[in-house]
């Protein structure tokens, strides 16, 4: 939340000039497209007669009705409380998306048939690959951040080389390097461990930078107070600095987790049957690509929403000491 | 003075790069003694007392605290620090912990005291700085004066042999200054060994056993408060006192 003022602002969507502008804009946009031949035209048949022959009047009437409904909707939502507003707007946007996907004429039975396998094989693989990678990446990040802030030349050099290398190379290349390169050195790694290793190293590098900047954002006075009480380095880090850095670290880390969830699809190139891989292959035989891809996307989205919820819970937990 | 020396600085010099921040400092703080250090901004007062718990390193001379000599390779710096309480200008409380936890952390994590014991000590010292009712609040919920008193209690919980104060009241509003000074006066009366950097001359007159005036990294003058305020010897001391006591 931004800093909330105690004086209530006038509600923007109830100001006449705003309502008028909104109406004008929506009206103009829909007037620009000829919607008489779409399902909007069909819906308006009682008013405008045969849509294809209604001409300019039909276009005008459709745009007018859409603009009116839109403005009415916004103005009414303006009366609701914050929570209700959020819920309604989410619901309406979702409805619009569903309407959009309905135009693909997807075969629902096909989706129902394949969904269990998509989840039991794909989602489970995606989830455990990302979950393990996230944990390892976080551990690497803490070590990397401390190394990058240390005055030890070896530690700094290794950590900075590592972050530079793994942030600089495409993730796909890293996956290949580990899966195909390590066997050259005599270590044969399975596809899943190789994928996990690649994801951990890559995201560990990004998160090293996040952790480093989080640690650096803490005031020097905290270090001094902690040291002046006799706390050693690791105690200061664990009990004083990291807990305060977490609120700074968590939002970008949440971003990384969500992005890793989807990047885990890259490990399919080495034959891991994760969600995206299955979505592409299951639809191939019957040319029902869109069904599977859209289902996979929906699943990714739902998983991301779960992560977002977890993130906001954690953020709220750490916000305690900030409110007066 | 015959009491044992808690802090002993001999011919201490310190540089920040090329800048000579402390020049040949000799100072002994005896048990039970109250010392007030004053001087113009940038004269090295903070630097000096931060050398006493080795938040800063000195390059020449010797500093001995509680019989332990401070040097770059020392292994027992935590022993020194847990025996030397420090109160900062900006409080530096741990904002993610409650007031009570701020006071319990030191004894529990450094001295290995049990939680119950630490809690008892913490409450006793919070009582002493007269804010036991704030124990379960977070530092941001307290006024500046209350925060500084918590910071004092936090240091006291470690049962230090000496307390260092670095301008503890200069970040406070005027009406909160006195509540902190009262707390410090109370400490002085109970016999705590104290080294205070402060410009509160009323406080200095009331509690100091010895006044020290620093300028440009040197101790220019030291003496009993009476003679220090009544009859300063050095021109720079006179100038400084006339400026600070003008208002
Ligand atoms: N980390 C540092 N690096 C370089 N110079 C420093 C550093 N810390 C302090 N100094 C310099 O050392 C001198 C003494 O600083 P110090 O903070 O001890 O002054 P002070 O007497 O406490 O002043 P004030 O009353 O403003 O707190 C100042 O000139 C300052 O610029
Ligand atoms: Mg200072």
From TrEMBL, chain A:
Membrane topology reported for the UniProt record: Multi-pass membrane protein
GO terms assigned for molecular function: transmembrane transporter activity
Gene Ontology BP term (one): amino acid transport
Location of this chain's protein in the cell: Cell inner membrane; Cell membrane
InterPro entries in alphabetical order: AA_ABC_transptr_permease_3TM, ArtM/GltK/GlnP/TcyL/YhdX-like, MetI-like, MetI-like_sf
Primary role: Part of the ABC transporter complex GltIJKL involved in glutamate and aspartate uptake. Probably responsible for the translocation of the substrate across the membrane.
Protein name as it appears in the record: Glutamate/aspartate import permease protein GltK
UniProtKB/TrEMBL annotation, chain B:
InterPro entries: AAA+_ATPase, ABC_ATPase_HisP-typ, ABC_transporter-like_ATP-bd, ABC_transporter-like_CS, MetN_ABC_transporter-like, P-loop_NTPase
Keywords for the protein's UniProt record, in alphabetical order: ATP-binding, Nucleotide-binding, Transport
Entry keyword annotation includes Lyase: no
Any one GO MF annotation of this record: ATP hydrolysis activity
UniProt domain ABC transporter: residue ranges: 7-241
Segments passing through the bilayer: none
UniProt cross-references to Pfam families, sorted A to Z: ABC_tran (PF00005)
PANTHER family, alphabetized: AMINO ACID IMPORT ATP-BINDING PROTEIN (PTHR43166), PHOSPHONATES IMPORT ATP-BINDING PROTEIN PHNC (PTHR43166:SF4)
Family listed: Belongs to the ABC transporter superfamily.
Protein name: Amino acid ABC transporter ATP-binding protein
Organism: Mesorhizobium neociceri
Organism placement in taxonomy: Bacteria, Pseudomonadati, Pseudomonadota, Alphaproteobacteria, Hyphomicrobiales
């Amino acid at each position: 939340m931004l800093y909330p003022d105690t004086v209530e602002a006038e509600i923007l969507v109830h100001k006449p000039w705003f309502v008028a502008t909104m109406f004008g804009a929506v009206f103009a946009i829909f007037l620009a497209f000829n919607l008489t031949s779409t399902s909007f035209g069909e819906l308006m048949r009682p008013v405008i007669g045969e849509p294809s022959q209604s001409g300019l009047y039909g276009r005008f009437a459709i745009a007018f009705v859409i603009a009116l409904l839109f403005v009415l909707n916004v103005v009414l939502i303006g009366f609701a409380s914050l929570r209700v507003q959020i819920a309604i707007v989410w619901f309406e946007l979702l409805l619009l998306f569903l309407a959009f996907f309905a135009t693909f004429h997807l075969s629902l039975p096909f989706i129902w048939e394949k969904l269990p396998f998509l989840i039991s094989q794909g989602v489970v693989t995606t989830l455990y690959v990302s979950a393990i990678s996230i944990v390892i990446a976080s551990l690497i990040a803490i070590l990397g951040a401390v190394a990058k802030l240390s005055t030890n030349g070896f530690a700094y050099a290794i950590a900075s080389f590592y972050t530079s290398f793994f942030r600089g190379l495409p993730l796909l290349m890293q996956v290949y390097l580990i899966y195909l390169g390590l066997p050259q050195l005599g270590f044969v790694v399975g596809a899943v461990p190789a994928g996990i290793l690649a994801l951990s190293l890559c995201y560990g590098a990004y998160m090293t930078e996040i952790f480093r900047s989080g640690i650096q954002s803490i005031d020097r006075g905290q270090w001094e107070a902690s040291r002046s009480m006799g706390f050693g380095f690791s105690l200061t880090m664990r009990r004083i600095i990291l807990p305060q850095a977490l609120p700074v670290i968590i939002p970008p880390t949440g971003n990384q987790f969500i992005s890793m969830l989807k990047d885990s699809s890259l490990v399919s190139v080495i034959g891991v049957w994760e969600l995206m891989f299955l979505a592409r292959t299951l639809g191939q035989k019957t040319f029902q690509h869109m069904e599977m891809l859209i289902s996979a996307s929906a699943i990714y989205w739902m998983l991301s929403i779960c992560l977002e919820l977890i993130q906001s819970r954690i953020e709220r937990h750490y916000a305690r000491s900030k409110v007066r | 003075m015959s009491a044992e020396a808690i802090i002993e600085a001999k011919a201490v010099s310190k540089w920040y790069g090329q800048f000579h921040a402390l020049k040949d400092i000799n100072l002994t703080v005896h048990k039970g003694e109250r010392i007030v250090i004053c001087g113009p901004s940038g004269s090295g007062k903070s630097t000096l007392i931060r050398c006493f718990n080795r938040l800063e390193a000195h390059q020449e001379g010797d500093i001995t605290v509680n019989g332990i000599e401070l040097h770059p390779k020392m292994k027992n710096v935590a022993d020194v620090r847990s025996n030397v309480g420090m109160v900062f200008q900006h409080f530096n409380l741990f904002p993610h912990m409650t007031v009570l936890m701020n006071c319990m952390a030191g004894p529990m994590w450094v001295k290995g005291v049990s939680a119950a014991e630490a809690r008892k000590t913490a409450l006793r010292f919070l009582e002493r700085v007269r804010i036991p009712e704030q124990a379960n609040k977070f530092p941001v919920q307290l006024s500046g004066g209350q925060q500084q008193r918590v910071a004092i209690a936090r240091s006291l919980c470690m049962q230090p042999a000496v307390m260092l104060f670095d301008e503890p009241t200069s970040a406070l509003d005027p009406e909160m200054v006195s509540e902190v000074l009262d707390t410090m006066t109370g400490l002085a009366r109970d016999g705590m060994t104290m080294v205070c950097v402060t410009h509160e001359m009323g406080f200095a007159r009331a509690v100091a056993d010895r006044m020290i005036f620093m300028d440009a990294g040197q101790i220019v003058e030291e003496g009993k408060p009476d003679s220090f305020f009544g009859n300063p010897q050095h021109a720079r001391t006179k100038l400084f006192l006339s400026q600070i006591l003008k208002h």
